[in-house]
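Thread: Newbie trying to understand structure tokens

Hi all, I'm a second-year student working on a class project, and my supervisor (Dr. K.) asked me to get a predicted structure for one chain before our next meeting. I've only ever worked with sequences, so writing a 3D structure as a token string is new to me. If someone could post the tokens and maybe explain what I'm looking at, I'd be very grateful. Here's the chain:
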Amino acid sequence: MGQEAEKPTYLVADCGGSWCRVRLLSADGKRLAEGTGGPANVSAGLAPALSEVFRAAREALEVLDNPTPLSNLQASLAVAGLNEPAVRREFTETAHPFASLTGETDAFVAQIGAFAGGDGGLLITGTGACAFGKIDDETFEFGGWGFAISDQGSGARLGHLAVRRALQALDGLRPSSAGCDAVLEQIGTTPGEVSRWARDARPADFGAFAPILFEAADAGDGVARELIMTVAAEVDELLEALKSRGLQKICHIGGLAGPIRPWLSDDSLARLTDPKGDTFEGAWRMLREGTGLQNRNRREGK
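---
Reply by user tm_fold:
Sure, no problem. This is what the structure looks like when written as tokens:
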């Protein structure tokens, strides 16, 4: 058990395509505990995403000597995929156990944290990908519409390209490579096995292949290099979209941000700046300032 005597007052969460991370804060913003859950991108459904938030919150509460029920916590969530109007409406109407619940897209919240509430552009390339920018009262958003039709420049996109390329090699359509073989070792060695795996695969499953591709590329695998350059060009396009709106400084975050950086254009690299804060800080600022989507449909007696 932990040694914290303070009771947590706030819960801030970063809900992405591969996992959900929550942090419990005291009344003055001091970090008390953290917890993790599974994929929490609402493109797979709001209820499953929130269940991961609840699970991660309970994990964090368990390490405290002085725990508190969820009903005492003011929650602020950064949620991947919370940009479709119907899902945003559902978020404001669904019942929840918290004292209060605020949410916004992960890019919106991360931008607040990265620029301490000021102007600037934010690009997230993790399992999914999206870009967000703010100048004065005007905002800009690109991508983030889900793996099936969007998420260009993401880890899931890179993994999906790798699986497709590996399957083409199995079919004898194109030459194989060490990177293709490494992917196939995990999902099957026949076209039928690969097809069965893909039917139930989630974006996080595809994204898990991204490190394999970067490792293969470092070892000189031409196929891996080709696929990474394809995704890097998509990242460049997202950065160019932010630049075209007059955003001079852009923060690039997410699990793919570090590995893909050496593959980006010089013009893209010249625009990048270090964030002042992270998504958790953005979520806490959003809660304190009363911005974001507000859900007042608290479950009584919880």
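A couple of things are worth pointing out once you decode it. The chain has a mean pLDDT of 93. The longest strand covers residues 31-37. Feel free to ask follow-ups in this thread.
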